[in-house]
Amino acid sequence: MRSVLAAALVPVLLATAACGVRPTGIIDAGSKPVSGYRPEPVTIYLVKRNRLVPVRRPGLPGHPFLGVTQLGVPLTTEERNAGLTTAIPRGLELRLTEYGGVPPDDVGETTVADEIGSTGELVVETSSKRRWSRLALGQVACTAEAVRGVRRTLLMTDPEADVLARKRPGDLRLRCADHADLR
How many Å apart are CA 167 and CA 173, to the nearest integer? Predict the structure, then answer.
């Protein structure tokens, strides 16, 4: 039985040894691939000693309005250690519904308000009908205007109100300039 097995293996070993492929070690092909693209950081406004302070956070490619939604995210350890806080009500979700008549997901990072013929108004929706502090409104306005092309923000605090009404109760038009005394 052993001699039959050995006889069967000899031609297989000879065939593979004679194919001309020599064993090699690991071949170095250079350094690891690196992407040259780095997403732009986003600027959000936080609060320190009752003043609005710009803070940079990492951005994501294709999400120019990330800073506004970041206002609903808890502060980082570094931000808390630096004495920063937020006036945005806890657990609040800010949803972007429109930018110049276009859904925010359809707006690229390079879109400028003038290019799409828009007013530069960013529409932000929240389900919180509570009264917002002036600092919180300033955070939303200044963070939104930190995005290139945004000139003002419409904060809709009652999304179920009549959407066809020109001015709905609870809608607030915000501009960062209206909160300059807080910076």
Answer: 10
